[in-house]
Design goal:
By secondary structure, the protein is α+β, with helices and mostly antiparallel strands. The chain has four helices and three strands; from the N terminus they run H-E-H-E-H-E-H. The protein is about 55% helix and about 15% strand. The longest helix has 30 residues. The mean pLDDT is about 90.
Length: about 110
């Protein structure tokens, strides 16, 4: 492994650790509020990279009040990491698309 590969691997690992720590706090906060939140995408699959974002799936019904609460929890939890994220609501998905996302589950509340 050359110096560039070593540096890239260190950055990827640091970003992964940062994302995982932020996600753990968010999942804990969501659980405390009774919100079933799931991590999907690259972090769930184990192929999170230096430029990856974090993908969240909000399970169950999502009225406006609940959407705002989840949006605030996730934004507050991810802000310090500066890692971009996507917030996906199950209510907005077709059944086929939901099943695609569920293949990537890593952590649930």
């Amino acid at each position: 492994m050359n110096r560039m590969d070593t540096l890239t691997a260190k950055r990827r690992e640091a970003r992964h650790e940062q994302a995982s720590a932020a996600v753990a706090g968010i999942l804990h906060a969501a659980e405390s509020c009774g919100i079933p939140l799931t991590v999907i995408g690259s972090l769930a699959r184990g192929d999170f990279r230096s430029h990856s974002d974090v993908d969240f799936l909000v399970r169950g019904p999502a009225d406006n009040k609940r959407r705002r609460l989840v949006e605030r929890l996730v934004a507050d939890g991810m802000r310090a990491s500066a890692i971009p994220y996507d917030l996906i609501f199950e209510d907005d998905l077709t059944e086929d698309r939901l099943q695609e996302f569920l293949h990537d589950i890593v952590m649930k509340c």
